Amino acid sequence: MFTALVTGGAGFIGANFILLARNKQWLNVVNLDKLTYASNLQTLAELQDDINYHFVRGDIGNVELVSYLLEQYQPDAIINFAAESHVDRSILSPQEFIQTNVSGTFNLLEASRFYWQKLSLQKQQQFRFLHVSTDEVYGSLNLKDPAFREDTPYAPNSPYAASKAASDHFVRAYYHTYGLPTLTTNCSNNYGPRQFPEKLIPLIILNALDYKPLPIYGDGQNIRDWLYVIDHCEAIYLVLQQGKIGETYNIGGLNERANVNVVEKICAILDELVPKSDFNYSSLMTFVKDRPGHDKRYAIDCSKIKRDLGWQPQENFDSGLLKTVQWYLSNSYWVNQVRSGAYKNWLKQNYENRKS
Ligand code: NAD
Ligand code: TYD
């Protein structure tokens, strides 16, 4: 079985990917994660006795550490999930986004290049550097615009999107300049179990369960294309195995929703699963001050990955959202762990000045 160095594997998508990779015996995994506020090792606790899973705490920006891990574990692939990933945080403190998303990815590419150049020809041909990116690099769509394709020009609007766009460009350059066998995936908004509750869906679920206001930015008509995290992880594995080197693949959920409709749907599920006789959860919905530069709409055209690799999303939004709400209801230990003091500070910082 191949070995992958997975970065950022203690975060939302990376951890879901590692759990699948080990449970389905896709890959042996070395997980390099800095353990920022967004991570939770509890998510991976079930792998503690797995001899083909190794966790290393560290920064992708640490060249010596990354080079050491490459020599030590001789991976056949690097899958780069590590990032600062939240748009609102990038607006309040963009510096860390440049540090990890741009400089960190650059360091990872440099260490990979030196490692890859020393491999045997056969190992060189097998090796892949898969970079996980976002649809936000393409900017914002109007309602009637066609969905983002792989050849849509980059037009990032937030510091987060700009930092991811920069990292994508470096990945592209390392393929074209050095021949490093890279793959890039640009996916839409993920949702599902184990997501840190600063992002819309888990934030709304947990606020509702606490009878707190459900903050909806602006008029709630911004549209996102929601992708179930397990569908995304399966797409990544497929791209890793069968993707054409140097190419990018868009991965989407074929599931565009206005934010206000997403929040209403979560409330309706909670009304069913945790009913209150005198109260509907939707009464907590609160329109608050908009995010600066808030992109209107994202939509992914994923016909390339469907045509070339045979992937399409399996989960529909009704079943995916139900599973997600059920997961948060059944995992209060995990939830309590991530809602530490630092999380409370974030809620104060982001929402205090957004009064409706
Ligand atoms: P996340 O914020 O939940 O997790 C990121 C992980 O990276 C955390 O465990 C964190 O500790 C780790 N990390 C951060 N900086 C690091 C560093 N310098 N060195 C090592 N580890 C570091 O993010 P996520 O939602 O799991 O996203 C994973 C990737 O997918 C990111 O690259 C993100 O840009 C991309 N993406 C996410 C979404 C989404 O909806 N969540 C959508 C499109 C693309
Ligand atoms: P988010 O989950 O932060 O993802 P992204 O900004 O990467 O798309 O936000 C999803 C959408 O929900 C986005 O349009 C902003 C909106 N949103 C709210 O309306 N209220 C909130 O409290 C949050 C966190 C997001």
TrEMBL record:
Catalytic activity field: dTDP-alpha-D-glucose = dTDP-4-dehydro-6-deoxy-alpha-D-glucose + H2O
Record has Lyase as a keyword: yes
Domain NAD(P)-binding: 5-321
Record keywords: Lyase, NAD
InterPro entries the UniProt entry points to: dTDP_Gluc_deHydtase, NAD(P)-bd_dom, NAD(P)-bd_dom_sf
Any one GO BP annotation for this protein: nucleotide-sugar metabolic process
EC nos: 4.2.1.46
MF annotations from Gene Ontology: dTDP-glucose 4,6-dehydratase activity
Keyword NAD among record annotations: yes
Highest taxon of source: Bacteria
Listed CDD domains: dTDP_GD_SDR_e
Cofactor: NAD(+)
Family: Belongs to the NAD(P)-dependent epimerase/dehydratase family. dTDP-glucose dehydratase subfamily.
UniProt protein name: dTDP-glucose 4,6-dehydratase
Organism this protein belongs to: Atlanticothrix silvestris CENA357
